[in-house]
Specification:
The chain has six helices and 15 strands. It is α/β, with parallel strands linked by helices and about 250 residues long. A hairpin with a 2-residue loop joins strand 12 and strand 13. It binds citrulline.
Length: about 250
């Protein structure tokens, strides 16, 4: 998990209208902006060059750039997000990725896929089948991956918004996982760092050039992760969590 670059998009004032499963408190724009700044700083500390895109006010969830593309060593894949209000977010990302990647692929209707459902471990991609990502899209993605010498397989997601809300990779053989993914058959060949119910938000971490970026407020998981990194950077993403956003969804890393 070595990255040199990341794409992020500043949240807009419209973030208060982002989709929320729980429908609880609304994010505060000023606080979200400050948390986003700290997130960018954390990636920069990891040695990543940031391309920061302007806010797209017409799309309240557009700060969650991870959902609109899947970046692989062979190609960039433009997704077809599962939420209707998010579909048009792909247009501007396609323009940007066209200038970076020589090969661009797309997931097409009736396939729907959110990048948050894609967990890459080496050259294999686990594809969460969730409320946002369907089997049609999963099969399209597997065909694309195989064309470029990679592979994919599906994992059913029942209890989380996305696959990576509940499980992320720490290295080629180790995952940090919560809930249904702690002892899921799809991950039986991995060492699992389990996240307790109280710290479920900590299952979504970013490993970047030897460091781990994790959400603030999860001391038990932080201690478990310490042996796996030269440094652990905590970032408070409470405003994004109010609308079901985690750490990974705020960037596209490559
Ligand atoms: C949504 O429901 O689409 C946004 N409110 C949250 C997206 C989070 N993205 C992610 O986990 N990859």
């Amino acid at each position: 998990m070595n990255f040199t670059q990341a794409i992020v998009r500043r949240p807009g004032k419209s973030i208060v209208a982002g989709i929320s499963l729980a429908g609880g408190k609304l994010p505060r724009y000023d606080k979200a902006l400050e948390q986003h700044r700290c997130y960018v700083e954390a990636l920069t500390t990891c040695g990543v060059k940031i391309r920061e895109l302007d806010a797209l006010e017409e799309y309240p969830d557009s700060t969650f750039v991870e959902d609109v593309a899947v970046l692989t060593p062979g190609c960039a894949i433009i997704t077809n997000p599962g939420a209707v209000s998010r579909k048009a977010e792909v247009t501007s990302m396609q323009q940007i990725l066209m200038n970076i990647f020589s090969a661009l692929e797309t997931i097409d209707s009736p396939g729907t896929l959110d990048g948050g459902d894609i967990l890459q471990v080496g050259s294999h991609f686990f594809i969460g089948q969730s409320k946002r990502t369907n089997n049609d899209a999963a099969q399209q993605l597997i065909t694309i991956l195989e064309k470029y010498g990679m592979s994919g397989s599906t994992v059913t997601v029942n209890d989380f918004l996305h696959l990576k809300t509940g499980v992320t990779a720490i290295n080629a053989t180790t995952l940090v996982a919560g809930g249904e993914f702690i002892d899921h058959p799809a991950f039986q060949n991995f060492d699992i760092i389990p996240v307790s119910r109280d710290e479920i938000g900590a299952a979504n971490c970013i490993v970047c050039n030897g460091r781990i970026i994790m959400p603030a407020g999860f001391p038990e998981t932080r201690d478990k992760l310490k042996p796996y990194a030269t440094d652990i950077i905590k970032v408070d993403i409470s405003e994004f969590a109010k609308i079901d956003g985690g750490l990974t969804c705020l960037s596209l890393r490559f």
